[in-house]
């Protein structure tokens, strides 16, 4: 089960958007975005809403992906 940051990497590539621009558009620090993209940080509910606003991927998708990943990671 990949970290939801992997999906975000793919979506940003599809949108032709870098992490810096995404950070600016979501008002989330670039360091935090980088950590998510690298699978080192979790997506919070507030972040999911901001991701939805920019990517048009529903917030519930981001939260479900994070929940599934967390459940998988706990079992490792």
Q: Supply the helix-strand structural class.
A: mainly alpha
Helix content: over 70%
Query: Could you state the order of secondary-structure elements as H and E?
Result: HHHHH
The whole-number mean of residue pLDDT values reads 96
Fraction in beta strands: under 5%
DSSP helical segment count: 5
- Poorly predicted segments: none
**Beta-strand segment tally:** 0
CATH architecture level-2 label: Orthogonal Bundle
Give a written overview of the molecule.
The protein is globular, with a radius of gyration of 12 Å. 74% of the residues lie in helices and 0% in strands. It starts with a helix and ends with a helix. The protein has 76 residues and is mostly helical.
Keywords, please?
434 Repressor (Amino-terminal Domain); mainly alpha; 5 helices; 74% helix; globular
């Amino acid at each position: 089960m990949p970290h939801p940051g992997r999906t975000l990497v793919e979506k940003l590539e599809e949108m032709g958007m870098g992490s810096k621009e995404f950070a600016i558009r979501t008002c989330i620090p670039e360091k935090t975005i980088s950590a998510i993209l690298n699978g080192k940080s979790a997506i919070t509910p507030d972040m999911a809403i901001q991701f939805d606003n920019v990517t048009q991927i529903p917030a519930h998708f981001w939260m479900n992906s994070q929940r599934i990943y967390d459940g998988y990671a706990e079992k490792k």
